[in-house]
Structure formats: C-alpha cells, structure tokens
Amino acid sequence: MRRFFPTKTLNNCHSSSQETHQEYEDIIVVDQPMQISLNNLAPSDQAIVSFKTRGEIEVYSSTNQLITSLNPVPVREIPEITLLARTFSDRILDRCLQITFQDDACCQLSQVLIKLTCVRICLDVDADRDGVIEEDHPHKGDWQWGINGHGAVLLVNNDRGLNYSDEQQKQEDQSIQRLLALKDLSFMSVRRVGLKKLPAECQLCLSVDQDIAKRIRIYDQLEQRGDQLIGSGKATAQLKDTDRDIILAIEGLSYPDFDFDGMVEITLSLVKQGEILYSDRVIFRVAPWIMTPNTLAPITVFVSRLSNGKNEQFIDELRKVVGKANAQIDPVPFEFHQDDPWMRDEIEIGYTQAPGHFIHVILDSPRDRGLDHFAQRQLIGTDFGYVVRKSRYCATKLDSFGNLEVSPPVTVNGINYPFGRLIFGGTRPEIIHQPRRMLKVVRDFLYAQKIQAPLEIFSDWLSVGHIDEFMTFVPASTSKGFKLLLASTDKSYELLKQLRDQGQAQILLRQGKQLNDQPADISVADVLNNQELTSQNQRFQEYINWNREVLKQELGLDEEDIIDIPALFQDDGDGRAETFFPNMVNLIVLNQHLAIPKPFGPKIKDQCQFEAYVKRVLEPLGKECHFIDDWEPYFRGGGEIHCGTNTRRQPFTQKWWEIEPNFL
Amino acid sequence: MRRFFPTKTLNNCHSSSQETHQEYEDIIVVDQPMQISLNNLAPSDQAIVSFKTRGEIEVYSSTNQLITSLNPVPVREIPEITLLARTFSDRILDRCLQITFQDDACCQLSQVLIKLTCVRICLDVDADRDGVIEEDHPHKGDWQWGINGHGAVLLVNNDRGLNYSDEQQKQEDQSIQRLLALKDLSFMSVRRVGLKKLPAECQLCLSVDQDIAKRIRIYDQLEQRGDQLIGSGKATAQLKDTDRDIILAIEGLSYPDFDFDGMVEITLSLVKQGEILYSDRVIFRVAPWIMTPNTLAPITVFVSRLSNGKNEQFIDELRKVVGKANAQIDPVPFEFHQDDPWMRDEIEIGYTQAPGHFIHVILDSPRDRGLDHFAQRQLIGTDFGYVVRKSRYCATKLDSFGNLEVSPPVTVNGINYPFGRLIFGGTRPEIIHQPRRMLKVVRDFLYAQKIQAPLEIFSDWLSVGHIDEFMTFVPASTSKGFKLLLASTDKSYELLKQLRDQGQAQILLRQGKQLNDQPADISVADVLNNQELTSQNQRFQEYINWNREVLKQELGLDEEDIIDIPALFQDDGDGRAETFFPNMVNLIVLNQHLAIPKPFGPKIKDQCQFEAYVKRVLEPLGKECHFIDDWEPYFRGGGEIHCGTNTRRQPFTQKWWEIEPNFL
C-alpha cells in the first residue's frame, strides 16, 4: 500500500472567495492501492466531502467499500480513502480524482484535483516450470519444492570457466555459436509498463543484491551490443523506455556453495527521484550439480589412450564390454592427458538441469595433473558444462574423485534420498598419522548442492586414499535396487584357507606377473604364512568394517545388502594400505555388465578362484562379470579400472525440483 | 541391413602355392548389421571356413547365432555371416575380420581380411517432448499424438514475414536481439561420429525433401557466420568433420497448409562416393496455429484510438470493464490504424506452442485496410509471431476476421474437440445473389491446422457478412461450459409486441440518436407496423435459424445451450442485412464481464427493455452485463464492440500434442 502525500502543490489558487483549488500530479501502480488521508486535505474536520473520478479508477472508503455514490459525506466519517486502478495508462495523467469539500450549507470550501498516471510494474518468470514465462504467476516471488511446487530455475552457464582466446571470442560473437552457447539461459519478461516514456523523473530499475551481482549476468534484448545489464558486480540497471514487453536473459555463474544458497532474487522497481514507489520481485534457484550413481545407464566411457600402446589391449577388452552395454567408449588422445591414466581422479561427470534444459557438467577436481586438459577438450562442445573448485591449500590424493561416489537412491529411517547420497572419503585423526582430508572448498561445494546430502567416510587409511578402493554399488533387482560391494581381506583369507585345506597351498597368486622387475607370483601358503601381512590386513579390515557400519547406518542398509569382494592390502611403509593384487571392487558398472580388474588369483583347472567366487555372488543378481587385465597400465600404478575410466551416464528421470527433500 | 560387396580388392596376392590372400577395407555403422556372403568369397563350396576378429566386432551365423568358436565349419553349413559392431571407431580400420578357407586336409586355400572402420550415424531430437534432446529415442522417426505419444515439435519462427530494413537487420545481427529472436528454435543433435575425420570419400550429409527445403531452415553451430545449412531451397548439406556432437538449430517457416501437412522429415546419411551407406532420420511436426475461444481469460484488449477523440468516451467505458476483468487495454495509436476502427477484422490473435515454447501469433487477414500496420507494431517485439495469407483474388468482407470465430471445447457424437472448432461464414449460392465466400487461401490455412476442425456456416446474408453479427459464445457453468448466443429478430418482435400489449406502443427505440443526420428514433408501433421490415426480419431470422441448426449439429448443442439475443436487421438495398439498432450479440467476453453494445431500445422508467431482457437471461449465468454506447464510433460504421476490438487471451492449459484427436 502506498500513501499519497500532498507534498507539492502544482496549482494553488485562491479564488475571490475563501475557496481554494489545489492540483497534484502523481503516479499510481496497476493493482496497487494508494491511500489518501482526507484529514490532510480537508479545510476543516467539519467539512463535507464528495468525489468525482475520470478514467479507470476506483475509490474505496476506509472500510473497503467502493464509493460509487456522488452524495457528499462528512469528512469525519471517511477520514481516509484508497484509490485503485487496474489498467495502465497509455497517456500521461489520464486518470483524475476530484475531491470537493463543502460546508453544511453546501457552499464549496475547496477542491483538490489529483491527476494520476497508472503504470504497470510486473516482472515475470517461468514459475510453474514448464519452460514458458507466465503472466504474473502468484508465487513467482517464492520457491517451493515438489511436483506441485513453484519457483523458477536458473542454470549455471555451461562454458564459464573456459577461457577463450580473444580471437575465439571474436569469432564466437559473430556466429550462431553464440546463440547455441547461450541456449541454456533462462528468461524473464518485464511486462509492458503502459507508456512508452515514463512520467518525468521516473525510472524502471532492475536490481539484485551486491553479492548476487557477482553470481549472475542479465542481458537486455534492447541492448544492441549484447552488453550485460546486470553482472560483474553491477547490481542495478535502469531499463530503457519501451512500449512493449522486454525479454531479459539471465545466466548463472555460480553453483550453490557455502556462501551462496543458490537463491537469486531480482527486483523490478518504479523509482521516482530516488524513491522506490513500488517493486515487483521474482526468485530463481540455481540448479544444483547432480552426480549419477552406477544404477543409471552409461552413455560414454572415457579412458586415456596412453602412449606406446601401453593400454591398447586394455581399451580393446573394455570396448567389448562397453559395446555389450550399448554405450560408447571414447579414448582420449595424449594431448589431453599427457599420459595421466587416472581419468576418474581429475573430473567427475555430473549434470544440471532446468525445465526444458539439460547439460552434463564436469566437476574439475583441485588435482591438476595431466588430465587437467581433458575438461577443456569436452568443453569446446556445447554439451558439457564445467565447474572447478580451487584452493590456496595444496590438494592431496583425497581430492581426487576416485574418492567421491554417489549411492543409488535410498530411504534411511523414513527419510527419502531420491537422488542418492554423495559419499567421499576423509580421515580419522585418532588413527592416522599426518591425516589428510578432502579440501574444504570441495566439501563445501558438495554439501551446498543439497540434493544428494553428502556423507563423509574414512579413506585416509589407504595410501591413495580413495573410497573406490574398497567400495562400489552394483544395481540389483532387490527392494533397495542395489548391493553395496565392499573389499574384504577376511574374504580373501577365507578363500585362501579353503584352498590350503583342499591341499592347494602351493598354487600361485599373481602368476606370471611382475612387480618392480621381479616375478610377482606368490603361493597361497606364503600369503597365509606371512604374519605381518595377516596382521596388516586385519587392521585394514577393521577400517573397512568401520566404514561398513557408517554406510549401513547412513544409507539404511542391512547385512544382506552388502557383498564382500576378496581383496588384500599391504602396508605402504607409511602405515597406509596399498593393494596386494588387482582390486576387484574397483570395477565399473555398465548396466548388467561389470568390467572387473582381473585379480590374478590362485587357479584351479585354469579357473581363478577369486574370479569364480565373484561370479558366484554376482551372477545370481543378473550381472555379467568381465575380468580385464589391467595389471600393467593401471594396477602397477596404484589403481584399477574404475580409477582409469570415467562414465557419462543418463540422468535421473525425476526432476530435482519435483522432489520434496525432507532432509534439507 | 547392409551387404558387404567385395567389389574392390585392395590386395590380392597369390603366394607360391594356390593360396590367395585378399584384403578389403569397408565402413560399418554402429549397431547396423552387415551381411557377408561366404559363397562369394570361398574358393570352393567344399571349403571349410574359420573366423578371427580384432577389435569390437561380433560375427553371427545365418541363424543369428553368435560365432564364438574358432573351430572351422564347412562353408555350405554357413553360407552367410552377419557382422555387428556396437562402438564407434576412434581410429581408422580398428576392426578386422579374418576369414580363412581350408580344404578337408586342413590346408589353407585362401584368406580374406576385411578391415573395418565403425562409424556412428545418429541424429537426435526431443522426441519425448520435455524440451531436452534425448539419446537415440526409439520413436524419433515417428510422430504420435497423445500424452504418451512421441515426436518432436517445430515452431514457425516468430518474426518471419516482418521485413526489417537492412539497417535494422544489421543492428540485430550484432545484438543479443538475434539470440532472443531465435530463442524459439528447436534443436537437433548429430551425435559424435567417432572419428574426427571420416575415412576417405565418406561424408556425413543432412537432407530434406526439396519441398521441405523451402519450409524450414537449419543452422549449424559450426558455421561461423550463422549461414543456414539447409533452407531457401537448399535441401542437402555436408556436415563438417568434428570429434564431438553437433548441435543444429531448426526453424519452421511455413505453417501447415493445403500443400503441407506440417511433417518435416530430416535425414542424416553416411555417403560414400555418392552411395548412401546408412541413414538415420527424425520427424518434426510443425506446431499449428491455435485460436482462443471466449472461455479463455483475456490478457489484453486492443482497440484503435480514433482521431478527434471519436471513440475516447468508448475507450474510457471499455477500460473500466477490462480493468474489472483483470486484463489490460491497449489503445493503438493512429499511425498503426489510419482511423480504421475494425480491429477485429484485420487480424486474429492465436498462438502456437512447442514443449517449453509459447508465442502468441497474429494471423493477418487478406483484408488490408488501415489496420494492416497494426501487426507490424506488435511484431517489433519478440512476443508475437506472425502469419499472413495473401491471394491473387480480391478479398471480400467475408475475409475479415469478424467472420472467424472458435467455439469452446465441444464433444459431438462422441467425438471430442478439446480445442473447440473454428467457425467461419460463407455463402449459400441458392439464396444469395452475387455470393461471396472466404478466400480459399484462408480456408485452406484454417483446415490445415487440423486441431480445431473448422466448420463453415452462412454469413453472406449479411451486408458486412461476418458471423460475429449474429453469434457469439459466452462461458457458463453448465456441463458444456458455455452458451451460444444468437441474434434473434423473433425475440425483438416478441419483446416489442409485449410492450405494445402493455400499452407502450409509443415509446421510442434509438431515442436521441441520429442516422444520416436525421433523428433515428422510432416508436415501437412504427417498428411493428412496418410490414416490409417485418418480412425482411422474418427472412433474416430464417438464415439465423439455418445456422442454428448447423451449429447445433456440428457443435453437439441442444436448444437449452442457446440463448436468443434481441436484434433487428434491415435490407441494405441489395438484399443483405444490416443492423437496425446496435447489435448486442456483437459483444466481447472478458471473464464474467460482458461489454455489450448499448442497444438504445425502448425505455420504461429509464430502463431499456432490451438491456433488461439481456440481463435477465445472462445474469443467472454469473455474467455482468456492461452496456457501452458504441453508436457513433462503431454502430454507424456498420459494426459494434466486437468488430472494434481484439483480445489476446491465455492459451489452453492442455498442450495440443497431448490430445488424441479422433476427428483427424
């Protein structure tokens, strides 16, 4: 509600009698009531008042009664009136309220003429999330989760962070490339104000908070050169005069983070001489970055093609599995990885979406090794977005994204996580000397996305420190929809002891393989008799068990949801674990096909007993196990298939804004 | 299924023995089987064959059995094999099939080496209509109506038909205006082929039919200057080599019409030396132009602001009704109408939509009078689309869009028309001398939109020839959702006779008004006693009755769905009807508010008896009747409020592609 203050009289003429005539000019906003205190205008509180209007304007009494009668009323009975106009003026001062004051004898005492121009202030967005801007959605200034929720969505623009050269930028400006790079912008509409030129001293201003001005850019269709209206710290802009709707394009620059909840409020104000007469406002939520669990179908598997054909055979084998899964394999050339084989660690491929928009988005880890160029390769196209978190602190191995996973959708104690939960590895300082933890900038980013409520577990006991060295998720047609696979040293010892008990103590693990230019083969007996190795593995098993309990609790799992996968670790000399034979749990899931590191376990009749065990537990779930030799290109470098690949997956079919997260 | 023809041998060397070695190179397409006839390759039908593969390729027997065994088989048992590859090559000739023929004695007779490069040919669209392009939607080459249907949608670009000046065009190119003008394009994706450079002599070609090449434009993101890839008659284009997905933007130029069913098929082909090796194809349907019935909420009412204040009072009165209906009124300045008051007749405001896209679209009639400039005014903005139909034949009054209406949604004999039915007026040559009919170009356009199954009725009996002179639809909370209002001369006579019977024969119609500089008032008695007028009105009533029956039948209406509105006509001297007093049925509907021409009927106690009757029949339906004096600016020119206004309305909430039209 705005008040009319008769501060400035345009005309104030006394006629020959005592009668005065006052004229005012003001602005009224469509559908916004304006209060007028008659006490301030009346020549005396004994006066009798009558009204006359011109143009589309209604007068209401203090009790909200429409005043239609022209019969004079005592001012004391109607100390205040409210004006309401519903249609914008197409001409200046096309409305008028004439207030006449009389005395008891019907002699006119004074007359006040209030001339009004009615302006519409309306900023619109796609609040109902169908991709189309509505007309003045009742909840456009509010944001609610859920299928029946409302509130507009903003994408972080997909190629920010990529530094074009000036030449590229110039070319881009001249081409339709620019259009396509901008095709995932959101739009707003400033509805036609009414007048082409606002009354003198009036402006239409768009504004955001100073902090938000660094996190978005707004473009005005009327700006000839595509200059931004708001952004780069510029928080307020005056809109040009026009007699039609103005379309504004808006792009997000920042994902939600510890200092940004993702909510972007934009205000359209009618300003007169610095005073805000009326404001309309809309709210966007910046779409979060979402990770895709192993239960979603793969589209593309990325792998570094190492020089000298080092992993050529591996790629060939993996390609066959990828083909069976109806996905594509995309071997990345040397220039983008510089022989860095750890495709998993440099990036995580998630996605972001808004109504009618979808893009895969690469989260670039603070680990900047050879594959740091890979994101650049993908980003040149329009089908990948990009986000990176850098820190002034040094990254550790725990900042690699082999240390970041996402569970399939889970329900935990009645709380539904329809997009699963992010899981990353950290430390337990009471156990670990010189503990490491994922950098705060990365953790903050993960928590700020909200939709996949993160969970920190314990991976610092591993030399490489990645959770994918002891856990993964495999889809299963159980009520939960998946099984958690955990590396198990106990399970290895159990299998090895069975072999010894069957008189097979002399068969070899790691047969025919080399480590440090030495034959790597070792007998079942030698493994079992190695007390130091046994006690190390007991210790590592305890760490896995600790994680097992945390995962059971935080993902709502039972023992039957977990499958133990044989693994052995050994101390790296620094108290941390490194794998003893290729670590099968570090597999990749491609629909029902699993590409599993070939463990080179003890063989009976040419059948590896570790492989046999894994098939025995996974094939009943409908899985096809493909064991691939990754010894040379990956295992010897401290990782396996999962570490050496990255998978772009289909998104969730459910839209993130349609859920009602009760965990927020 | 493609066949391998060993037409060209790369290597054909005879060794010292009879043994031959042949090498071929070919292309195979991802997921597309390739047949190889062994009979053609075998040195004899007695030979025994064995296979060896390199790279991701599978060999199937004629009976679709995967050939995994390396054991040799007699050729006569396996005369044909099929190859299948599922992953694209990232290197030329990375697959190989080696076929070895032996004799019974296991002596090698010959060997054939087929080296293959596997290429992906995949063109994608938004076939599931969520605004996002999917990966290889199974029904992308097909189009089905319905909420569970599929098939992509293409909008006709919104500002085609508007002729920018060169200077404007230039400015536009440099500005974000271009982006916004193009924001309603649809997109396609050519999926990554695999190789950056295709094998020699191979090309990737996009093509459409020659006719379609005039109806769409396709832009390639890789074209630096935004040149069109396909369009302006260019039906085929070679795509540039790239190692990533290519986004193509497509815009429609033509709405469906008599010679265009709106279906746009686009083919992506792998071509080698002019031969098409494989094609993928997608289908779009061009979105139809849709009209909005009176049951949809108004947004903006357009009216010409005539010079010399001729309709100033009228606009003021109408503005109040528009305000009550929460809509806006937009008086159009002189430069856009040149004092042409007939806003209804020059244009019809409909809309078009695609998933995530919506634009109001002006259909410009072949009537090109002063208001022809109006469309231009609206089109400068991005929120109006435009379509016009011109003919080499002269337009008649029947081509004005006062002669085009749309019913609310109806069900007729079990057939559901969820978007209503278009209705336009035509002639009955057996009755009418020098008959007129709406131009074929306009009728063809209307029928071709399909979604609102048009219906032609009889309006040529009217001098102006518009159906809005005798019919309109008013929303009502009945099971049908509306009432049909029909002008009724019988009803007028009935009311006038009642007045005479009540002794009121001398009260006046058209009191205080002028026609041809003469007082227009005429008594009830004089009207009733005018035999000629009576017989004319009987004739005109028969024409209305004829239409009444057609409308009842074609819209599935009962008598209770129809309300008679008093009207009188008189012969224009040429046998056609012109109104005798302001024609109330020519009203505009603004939610529950009706802006009705003030009929200047006979008054009793200051109450017009025609108005009283209309209120009596419409107020029980929840309608508020606002009678507005349109005598001078409109009635005297041969029209009324409906003729003098145009209303932009909210679209249907249902999407047109979600219906399953059983009337098509």
Q: What is the fourth-level CATH superfamily of the largest domain in chain A?
A: L-arginine/glycine Amidinotransferase, Chain A
Query: How big is the Rg of chain A?
Result: 35 Å
| Biggest protein-protein contact in the assembly | A-B, 64 and 64 residues
CATH architecture assignment of the largest domain in chain A: 5-stranded Propeller
CATH class of the largest domain in chain A: Alpha Beta
Integer average pLDDT of chain A: 90
Q: Main beta sheet of chain A: strand number and arrangement?
A: 6 strands, mixed
In the residues of chain A, how many domains can be counted? 3
Oligomerization category of the chains in this entry: homodimer
The proportion of residues forming helix of chain A, as a percent range, comes to: 10-25%
Provide an overview of this structure.
The structure is a homodimer of 664-residue chains. Chain A is α+β, with helices and mostly antiparallel strands. The first copy, chain A, folds into three domains: 2-120, Immunoglobulin-like (Sandwich), CATH 2.60.40; 125-286, Immunoglobulin-like (Sandwich); 290-658, L-arginine/glycine Amidinotransferase, Chain A, CATH 3.75.10. Chain A contains eleven helices and 45 strands. In chain A, the strands form 14 sheets. Chain A has a six-stranded mixed β-sheet with strand order 2-3-10-9-5-7, with no helix packed on it. In chain A, strands 11-13-18-15-16 form a five-stranded antiparallel β-sheet, with no helix packed on it. In chain A, strands 12-20-19-14-17 form a five-stranded mixed β-sheet, with no helix packed on it. In chain A, strand 29 (422-426), helix 7 and strand 30 (455-458) form a beta-alpha-beta unit. The longest helix of chain A has 25 residues, at 531-555. Chain A is elongated and about 125 Å long. The two termini of chain A are 35 Å apart. The relative contact order of chain A is 0.10. Mean pLDDT of chain A is 90; it is low at 160-176. At the A-B interface, helix 3, helix 4 and strand 22 of A face helix 3, helix 4 and strand 22 of B. Chains A, B: This is Protein-arginine deiminase. Chains A, B: Keywords: Hydrolase. Chains A, B: Residues 119-272 form the Protein-arginine deiminase (PAD) central domain. Chains A, B: GO terms for molecular function: calcium ion binding; protein-arginine deiminase activity. Chains A, B: Its EC number is 3.5.3.15.
